[in-house]
Amino acid sequence: MNGIIPYGKQSIDENDIRAVVEVLRSAWITQGPLVDEFEVRVADYCGAKYGVAFNSGTSALHGALFAAGIKPGDEVITTPLSFLATANAAVYLGARPVFVDINQDNYCLDISRIEVAMTARTRAIIPVDYAGYPVDMERIIEIARRHDLLVIEDAAHALGARRDGQILGSQADMTMLSFHPVKHITTGEGGMILCNDEEYYRRLKLFRSHGITREPDCLERNDGSWYYEMQELGYNYRITDIQCALGLSQLKKLDAFLGRRRQIASLYDEVLGKLDWVKTPLSPPLGSSHAYHLYPLLLDPSIDRKKFYDYMRSRNIGVQVHYIPIHLQPYYHKMFGYRAGNFPLAEDFYAREISLPIFPDLSQEEQAYVIDAIKTSKV
Ligand SMILES: *Cc1c(COP(=O)(O)O)cnc(C)c1O
Question: Which of 8, 15, 321, 325 could form a disulfide with 346 if both were Cys (CB 3.0 to 4.6 A apart)?
Fold first, then answer.
């Protein structure tokens, strides 16, 4: 093999490049018509009423928690098995992330532990569709409604996944997507919040751009057509037309990208499922589908994961580990007192997990090479 096979990467073709260059030759390169168009197209695809695009998935999640009214002292319930941004978004607003351990079958948060973790300060639940497995949102929403909590789905791994026949994006109060290059479609950096509620939509747009509005109906007074008001403390979290041109071009290929990811996963399932020292990821129930942002392979406890990782790397296979549980980070110990032993299932998963290469441009030859390396490993 020439060069390293990464665990994930973008697929960019000449149409993508042409779309971006076209914007560079146009009058608008930042907040032009393509931001709106990208929002409408992604929201349509996911069956949501509104989409608000941000300059990253992280800033989008920050916006969602702001729109949800999360304040200092509040608590949000989430999983320790995610990228840091999931929990950090709550910390940005002065809230405390309260973790619940994972479900050993699908590696998403264990829904049966949510109510145990609730306090009078709990305001929201942030489930993560780990690796692209759609969480059982119906059960989560049922719990949330009973306790008057909001549900913000971190679907950074799950664009295009189906839950009970429906592409996810309209079931939770708000749903976050990421367009980082390793995700399903990319804008370079970028993210989006999907929602059906007009008030969230309005607050997300305020937050994205300094808390400023020019909408005549929303102003306290109006000095003239130059006039704007800052009504909340917002940020500059805007995405650009350059990025959205890329996103729109990528969106046309999303179904093909997903198809290829599922094909790769199904070959891994078939071949690696026969090995007695690994566990392949669970397939969702009938009517639902996985989006396979990651292909997390779980090694038997008798295997030395570090040796296996180093061996795969020595074969030029860019395996990764997803994730170091958030509660084990020094910052989370220092600020919130979390420590090793708090979430034993997530910690055990972390000790044994390895993410195999999965991305649309992974060739059959490359996948065969990865499979052969695993089968012939002697670690
Ligand atoms: C990628 C990712 C994010 C953050 O998205 P960015 O676009 O990189 O800011 C948040 N949560 C999860 C689970 C992710 O994988």
Answer: 325
